[in-house]
Amino acid sequence: MQDISLHLLDIIENSVRADARKIKIRVINDQAINKLRLIIEDDGRGMDEETLRMAQDPFYTSKEQREIKVGLGIPLFKQNAELSEGSFSIKSEPGFGTVITADFALDNIDRMPLGNLKDTLLGSIVGHPEVDFSVKLISRQKGREQSFHFDAAAIKEELGGIPLTYPDVIEYIDHSLLEGIQNTNMEDV
């Protein structure tokens, strides 16, 4: 993976495959403590302890269609967080979903860039209109905090029967995400 947003995309796709109907994403850029934190929480099937352990093994995958049985997404995400003086945790319970938290030291030379967060989020929201995405971006620096919140469920309710895949709606979501990313200074991370 070339950047953190691609790790995020991989985790989102895992959540969708686990039948998640709600995915909560938080990206926190905290300059005061030199930390970039991603938290991805879903209400999917969840995993038992054995599956949770195996999910962190690069030679395990739950994808049955693959000829080669490897699943590098979670192990690489964990490795990249830890290589940048960060940490990684995954918690899950069958029937209650999964929570992944990854921390990266902002000033570590081995930290990969955040990448194209807007396109990752837009593609996920529009590509999975059946999922209610909640996105919160928080930037803390020099004693001030800026935040942005996007709630797909609220937008769906406001739109009535107009789908998220309608071109004008896609344009609105794209603009909202771009503005939120710019206002929280996430494009520079």
Question: Which terms would index this structure?
Answer:
alpha+beta; six-stranded mixed beta sheet; Heat Shock Protein 90; 27% strand; 189 residues; 6 strands
Compile the SSE list and pairings:
Layout: H1 4-17, E1 22-30, E2 35-42, H2 49-55, H3 73-83, E3 87-93, E4 97-105, H4 117-127, E5 132-141, E6 144-151, H5 152-159, H6 167-183
Parallel strand pairs: 1-5
Antiparallel strand pairs: 1-2, 2-4, 3-4, 5-6
Helix pairs in contact: 1-3, 1-4, 4-6
How many helices? The count is 6
- Taken as a percent bin, the fraction of beta residues is 25-35%
How many structural domains in the coordinates? 1
**Counted beta strands:** 6
Strand order of the largest sheet: 3-4-2-1-5-6
Largest sheet: 6 strands, mixed
Q: Can you tell me the CATH class?
A: Alpha Beta
CATH 2nd-level architecture: 2-Layer Sandwich
Q: What gross morphology would you assign?
A: globular
**Overall SS class:** alpha+beta
CATH fold naming: Heat Shock Protein 90
If you average the pLDDT, what whole number results? 91
